[in-house]
Amino acid sequence: MSFPKEMLKTVIVIHYHELWLKGRNRKFFLGKFLLALRRAFADFPGARMRQPGDRVVLEFGVNAPVETVIARLKRVLGIAYFAVARSVQRGSSDDLEVLCQVAWEEIAPLEFSNFAVRAKRSDKSFPHRVDEIERHVGRYLLEKLRAAGRPVRVQLDDPEMTCRIEITPGPMLVYARRIPGTGGLPANTTGRMVCLLSGGFDSAVAAYKMMRRGAHVNFVHFWGGGARPGESSVHVARALVECLVPYQFTAKLYLVAFEQIQREIVRSAPEQYRLLLYRRMMLRIAERIARRNHAQAIIAGDSLGQVASQTLQNMVAVGAASPMPVFRPLAGDDKQEILALARRIGTFEVSEEPFHDCCPLFLPRSPALYASAADLAEAESALDVVELAKQATEASVLEKYSYSSGRVERVETGSAVLNIVANSVGQLNQQKA
Question: What pLDDT digit, counting tens, does each position of 11-44 carry?
C-alpha cells in the first residue's frame, strides 16, 4: 500500500526537564521555555508549535533540515530529551497499515539487534487499543526485518531500539530516536550573574553550569600586555562567548586591561601575595560591572585544591574582597570532569588555543598557600584599591553578542582598547595563514 508523500511531515517531540516540579510557577518557566524554542527557530517561518499534554511538538515541512534542527535543540536549555518523529494524518480505515509503513521507514536505516514497539493513545476515539497497535506494528516490522535478512528479535524488556507511536487528537506520531537534551531550567529564569572569563577551560564550563540553572550570564575578561605578537587572550574570550551565547541568546563581554594594576601590585605588595591580590582586584572590578547590569552574583571557575591560589583558605581570603556572593560551581569537580564537559559544550577546542593569560605575569616564585583575609588586606594597604577598580571599570570595553537564526553577531561599543587588541589578533591570523 502507498500513501501520499504530503501526508508525512517531520516533527520533533520535546519532553522538558524540571518544569513539572514548579507548581504555581510552572506557567512562568514554561512560557520562557516556549519563548526559547521560538527564538531558536525564528528563521523557520513554516514551523508550528503545539502542546499536547506535558510535551511540545514542533512541526516542520517534509524537507526540513533535520540535522540543523537537532543541533539547535541541543542548545535549548530545559529539554530532557527530544525525538525526530514522523507525523501522519488520521482519517483512513487503513490507519494501522499506514502506521506500519511509516514505522518501517523510521527504523529501516537504524542498526539494532532487538526492538520493541510502544504505543500511547491520548485520543480514546481512535478505534484500536494500545496493545493491538503494538502487536500489529511489531509483527509487521519483524517480518520486514527478517525478509531483509536482518537477525533481529523482539525484546520487550530494555530493548536496544524502541519504535514509539503516539496517537494524539491531531496526527499520529512515529519515532525511534530519542536524543538527550541539555536538561536544566529554561534560559533567563533565575536572575543575572557575571562570570570571570579567563580563556581557559574552567571558567567557560562554570558559566555554562550556571546558565543551565537558568541564570543569564555576562562576562568580564582581564587581558594583559607582554605577550608575543598574536598571543592576546581576547580572541579566545570572544570565541568562548560565541560558543556560550546560543544557550541564552544575548550576552555582554567586558574587556578590562589589567597590566597596569598588576604593576601597581608588584610595586607595592609582598611577592607571595601577588596572585591572590590580582584575583581580589578582579573581583572588585567584576562587582562594579555586575551592579551596572543589575546582577546579583559573580561566577568564578575555581576548583578546590587545583592550583595554589585555590586552596580553601585562599579562596575564602580572595572572596572577602567583595560583598557580592561568588559562586564556584566547579569547586567539587576534578580536571577530567571539567574537560569532559568542555568537550561536550564545544569550548574545549577554543580554550586549547595558545593565548597570553594575564595572571602569570610577574608570578611569585613561592605563592602563599594559606593566606587569610587579614593578610591580604594588610598586603594591599598601600594600594588605592577603590580608585584602581574604578579606573579599570571606566576604561573597560563592552561588546554585545546576540544569537538569532543560528548565527551569532557581535556589536563593538568601544574602540581604544579594541584597536590594540585587534592588531594582536590580526598578527595571529597572519601567522596561522
Answer: 899 998 877 667 788 889 999 999 999 999 999 8
Dihedral, CA of residue 128, residue 130, residue 136 and residue 142, to nearest 10:
160
Domain count, the chain: 2
The residue segments making up the domain with residue 9 are: 5-180
- Contact indicator for 399, 255 with CB cutoff of 8 Å: yes
Q: Is 187 inside a domain boundary?
A: no
Quick check: 152 and 112 in contact, CB under 8 A?
yes
Adjacent-strand bridge partners of 333 = none
Cβ neighbours of residue 384 closer than 8 Å, sequence gap 6 or more: none
Residue 370 shares a structural domain with residue 421 = yes
The DSSP call for residue 227 is P
Beta-bridge partners for 411: 400
Report d(CA 254, CA 217) in Å as an integer: 12
DSSP H or E segment with residue 107: helix 95-107
Any domain includes 367: yes
Q: What is the mean pLDDT of residues 144-155?
A: 95
d(CA 219, CA 224) in angstroms, rounded, equals 17
Residue 366 included in any domain: yes
Q: Are residues 231 and 302 located together in one domain of the fold?
A: yes
Q: Do 209 and 244 touch, CB atoms closer than 8 A?
A: no
Residue 185, all three cell numbers:
531550567
Residue with cell 556589536: 411
